[in-house]
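Table S2 (text version). Query chain:
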Amino acid sequence: MAETQDVVELILQDHRRMEDLFRLMRSVEADREAALREFADLLVAHALAEESEVYPALKRYKNIDDEEVEHGEHEHEEGNQALLDLLEVADVGSEEWDAKLEALVEAVTHHADEEERTILNGARENVAMERREELGAAFLDERERQLKADCGSLDNVRRIVQS
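Corresponding structure-token output:
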């Protein structure tokens, strides 16, 4: 991945990594449990960093729709619930695993697509690169802090969903 501080590009890079991890979680040849652990950490850290560092800043721009930003936060909640449902499945080779994985894929893919078309395009068009880079640095710092705190653990995802 290219070294960038642009928050739009950083978020897009995370979305592409999530897609790669979905492919691994669907593959019977891959280490599905390891892919799920990485995915859980990335999804939770990514969403928390967006909600604390990016979304509040973007709401200040008149050409970025506040309702889209709030909708994005609601979709994070749906993604977290779908993640929890998958984390609670004991057997990665089961039909239940496959069904819960597909629900997670659908929730996250829908959110990423919508976010890219609305929020991120709005940010690219209306937010100066210097500000996007400041937001990118803040996003990375918070994301890293969450990753170091084992944010994708079953217990933490349960806590997030229940709050």
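Notes on Table S2: The helical segments are 7-26, 32-58, 66-87, 95-126, 129-148, 154-162. The radius of gyration is 16 Å.
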